[in-house]
Amino acid sequence: MIPLRYLASPPLALWLLCAPVMAQADGMIPETSVVIVDEALGEAALKVTNSDATSALLHVTLENIPEDKAPLVFVTPPVSRVEPGQTQLVRFILNAEQPLQTQRLKRVIFEGIAQKPRTASGEAVIGVNVRQNLPVILHPKGLAPNREPWLGLQWALRGDHLSVRNPTPYVVRLAQEVQLQPSATGLVLPRAYILPGDDLQLKLQSASQVATDTSVRLQPATVYGFAVEALAMPLQAEAD
Questions:
Q1: Contact 114, 52 (CB under 8 A)
Q2: Reported pTM
Q3: What percent of the chain has pLDDT over 90?
Q4: Which of 51, 62, 125, 208 has the fewest Cβ atoms surrounding its Cβ within 10 A?
Q5: What is the pLDDT, as a whole number, of residue 120?
Q6: Dihedral Cα 166, 169, 175, 181, nearest 10 deg
Q7: Whole-angstrom Cα distance, residue 41 to residue 93?
């Protein structure tokens, strides 16, 4: 299966040098597509491999999502030198002042910065720094794992809007395109995740067009970002 597109991030711009240059790709490869930090353990560890043929600096950056800017976790080491074909262990340490009540979502960027020697003709070789941008899920102590968190979403028609609520403590990942049935009316979610407590409102072009719709078709993703079989969730006539 193919991970959802938001797991990939575009490469950085080339560093410009005065001398003629050639481009060559390099990259740091994490061992998994998501980082899960269990509050019961207090931390998580992830191996990152230097897939390039030369040594490089691994730069690790944590990013907050717009909806949650609390500094709940930090990484160590933030910068390290990794030899070609070798791995670096990166630790994610929980730093929350209060116990977690729900899953929380952050993101982490792994970037390899390689030093390239000049060629025999005197040309400088520069690398295209490929960034890996992965989700980081902080999991509360005592919360049972849930392999199908999307089943807890509540979908409803509310006037000229489609409402989707997440009353669960789980982060739900899914493709942004959803479709009302049987009218086949397509709508786009503002983002590819729905946080605990979210109540998102999607504007309908015509409420009468979807008056007879009874379900919404969505494409969920596992916690690791892999798409699962599409399914239809029932629609309520009005949100509670």
A1: yes
A2: 0.82
A3: 70
A4: 208
A5: 62
A6: -30
A7: 9
